[in-house]
Write a structure and sequence with these properties.
The chain is an alpha+beta fold and 532 residues long. Helix content is 42%, strand content 24%. It is built from 17 helices and 18 strands. The longest helix is centred in the middle third of the chain and has 33 residues.
């Protein structure tokens, strides 16, 4: 039964055959009464079968059947579904149904135009996959990826911005980039909106995060244009440079500190040459040069490594840069220690004497070194002579010499060893290896013994020499300075080492020295009544 003009239908069907589109007609019972050749070539001949039997292999009318909606009163109905062609291949179809009416306007059937949308579906799936892949890549990049509209407002930004700025993505969208820039750099950032085609904006600016912290970012940005060349916005990358900037500043500070230390070395050398210590230093020029050159070489080497990586523009290995900076700081501290020892060795400060009980000063020092003793599980045997009275001392210098000797004892002692510290009043009888001559009849005596390894005789002969050390990172000036402090007090120091351990003995006069010309000293104002 023909539902429409047969000749017109045939011409329309042939036209759709040429266009590669499917056309069919159905009566009110959903039975196919016509199908063009192109549909038949794809699915076979459906004439005489219901559409749901032919396409879905079921006696039930499809839920989203566009023909049913036409019979229910709609003038046009569209649906899309996946079917299988005559060879079993999946194919996506878009069905557009319209009513066929008789002269009285009654719906007597439906015509259906069916289009193969498989390519479109595959393209959509490819685009979705590409977009998902792009978004995954964008989210995995450690930098902030962003897009701005023509007014400089964020139109897209990846989640890295939450880590860097501390704001959620949704809060940042449709807000201007300049709002997150430090005021002094906003004018510079505004020039992004003046970018020309092919131009790249590349600057380092200060950023303010959600907590008000000042950070630094390198921003690279390029204008984007539509096919007609009209500007549509800007796309860019924001890289966190805060740690790198801090490392650069630390490097500059280290360089400045190094220059300052070198200046001190020059001044110190000039002072040494002019001082009475010149001969002692001349004898150890090689040691001085070696001790100073070693940390300087290390600092210079690591500073140059950092400099090269900064200048190269390559990705910065933050952990490696922190390691380099730590080494530089450690070596500068080592250099400072050497310089402090040199200054102590050469300076001619007058002693600030006051009458004080040395046992009290020793007890204070023992409290300071308690934790170091525990670290090596050392036991301390202390016997402070009760007969000790106040004697003329410079408290700071005396504490320094005691601290030097105890520190040496701790370093020399084995784990679990014993350090003995005894004080008393005595007249020294053993003059072996002592420095200085003794003029007083009675002396305050302090002995500090450790049970570490024996010091060879050859080493004992050099132990008070400037820059002589057996330690890997020692300055070789600790005992030299200690000896100088003892001599400034008109005292004497000796050292012995045998299988039982090593003992340092110091004697300091109980009374004012007979010959004040041997050293420079003064009494503090509170003791101004004492002889000066």
């Amino acid at each position: 039964m023909a539902l429409s003009d047969e000749s017109l239908r045939e011409r329309f069907g042939k036209l759709l055959d040429t266009a590669g589109q499917m056309f069919w007609e159905l009566d009110r019972n959903f039975t196919v009464v016509y199908a063009n050749d192109y549909l038949i070539s794809i699915f076979g001949d459906p004439v005489g079968k219901t559409c749901h039997q032919f396409m879905a292999g079921t006696d039930e009318i499809c839920q989203d059947c566009p023909v049913r909606k036409i019979f229910e009163g709609e003038e046009r109905s569209v649906s899309e579904r996946m079917r299988y062609d005559r060879n079993g291949n999946p194919i996506w179809l878009q069905h557009t149904a319209t009513p066929i009416k008789n002269g009285a306007g009654e719906v007597i059937g439906a015509s259906e135009l069916t289009v193969d949308t498989t390519h479109n579906k595959n393209t959509e799936a490819w685009l979705r996959d590409s977009e998902r892949l792009y978004r995954n890549l964008v989210e995995q990049v450690p930098d902030v990826i962003f897009s701005l509209d023509r007014n400089g407002m964020f139109s897209f930004v990846n989640t890295q911005v939450e880590r860097f700025l501390g704001y959620p993505v949704q809060q940042i969208l449709e807000t201007p980039l300049r709002d997150y820039i430090s005021p002094q750099d906003r004018t510079l950032v505004d020039t992004i909106l003046q970018l020309q085609p092919e131009a790249i904006w590349d600057e380092e600016v200060a950023i303010v995060d959600a907590r008000g912290n000042r950070k630094f970012a390198r921003i690279r940005c390029k204008a984007s244009f539509d096919q007609l060349g009209a500007p549509v916005g800007y796309e860019g990358v924001m890289r966190d440079r805060t740690v790198r900037r801090k490392l650069e500043e630390e490097l500059k500070a280290s360089k400045a500190a190094l220059v300052e230390k070198i200046k001190i070395i020059d001044e110190l050398y000039e002072h040494i040459v002019q001082s009475g210590k010149c001969k002692a230093i001349e004898e150890h020029t090689a040691e001085v040069a070696h001790e100073l050159r070693q940390p300087l070489a290390i600092v210079g080497g690591f500073a140059r490594r950092m400099d090269r990586q900064f200048d190269s523009g390559e990705h910065i290995d933050i952990d490696r840069q922190k390691q380099y900076a730590g080494i530089i700081v450690m070596e500068i501290q080592r250099l400072e220690k050497i310089l402090d020892r040199l200054i102590d060795f050469t300076k001619r400060d007058r002693l600030k004497l006051q009458r004080i009980n040395p046992n009290e000063l020793i007890e204070y020092i023992l409290g300071i070194i308690e934790s170091r003793m525990k670290d090596k599980q050392l036991r301390l045997d202390v016997q402070l002579g009760p007969e000790i009275a106040d004697i003329p001392l410079d408290p700071g210098r005396f504490q320094q010499l005691v601290m030097n000797l105890i520190s040496n004892a701790i370093e020399a002692s084995p784990i679990g060893g014993v350090i003995e510290l005894h004080t008393g009043v005595s007249i020294p009888s053993d003059k072996a290896l002592k420095a200085g001559s003794l003029e007083s009849a009675e002396f305050f005596e302090i002995k500090i013994r450790n049970n570490g390894p024996v010091i060879p005789t050859e080493a004992l002969q050099k132990i008070f020499n400037p820059f002589y050390t057996t330690k890997q990172h020692g300055t070789g000036l600790g005992l030299t300075v200690t000896k100088k402090i003892v001599e400034d007090h008109i005292g004497s120091i000796s050292v012995k080492s045998d299988a039982s351990g090593t003992v340092f003995t110091i004697w300091l006069p109980l009374t004012e020295p007979y010959d004040r010309s041997r050293t420079g000293f003064c009494y503090l104002e509170e003791d101004s009544g004492s002889p000066a």
